[in-house]
Amino acid sequence: MIKDIRTKQVIIIGAILLLIAFLFTRDIKGLVKPKEDTTNTPAAGELATKPAQEINLQEVSTVGKNIINTSLAAEITTLENNYKKAPENDKNTVALQLAQKWDDVEQPIPSALYLELIAGKEPKINNWLNAGERFMKAFDLTRDSVIQPALLQKANNSYKNAFELDSNNAVAKTGLGITIVNGMGMPMEGIAMLLAVVKKDPTNLKANMSLGTFAIKSGQFDKAIVRFNEIIAQQPSPDAYFYLATAYENLGKKKEAIAAYLNSKKLAANPTLSKFIDKRVEELSK
Hints:
It is built from 14 helices and no strands. By secondary structure, the chain is mainly alpha-helical. It is globular.
């Protein structure tokens, strides 16, 4: 019986989180990885002891240009040539243009690498935060188990550099906490950082969302429900309702799950999500 329940939880969480990563890439950080994607995940803190793996910018650029239209690829190639020829003092200007171009075509890995170059030459807190945010976005979206650890390490390094410049910066502390929980340290250390952020600012949406999704990942559905209801009271969103529905469903609270799913559907107004939710509601209504 217990095995059946756990199997159901794995299926529900995996399917939901895969869907969320697809639907809400601009709003949701895929903090909880589907179970099938984490079978080879390093033990807690293991990545922190390994040397950072290098990601070849030229290689990811080539891959990225192969999946966008030729005119945009040509624009990026021109900017890349300009970057190589630019004097050292002008390289960051061109690198920023390249980062934006890659963002425009939804390719966060090369964008993050250029933002990292900018931060390395001009180590200001906002530059490191920009790099960290982009590396985390890339980490959330990629399903490449080889490159994921490298992206997480780079995100951690970026946030760590920002944190060293200002240990009171909530964005740096939140980002650092998220990377620690994901494998760059002992999970409770990261949770403690996120809780500290929320204690100082209970309205910090990103830290609260992170704590909520981590609660789901660890099977603490009651805590997740409290967290997401607090988030919704502050700022209703389709992803918060969707996570809330997930938690309710795993606890067998079908009526509450259906209500949360329908609120997610209403706010998102996404055909794919609507189809998925309609199916879930139909199954829960039986």
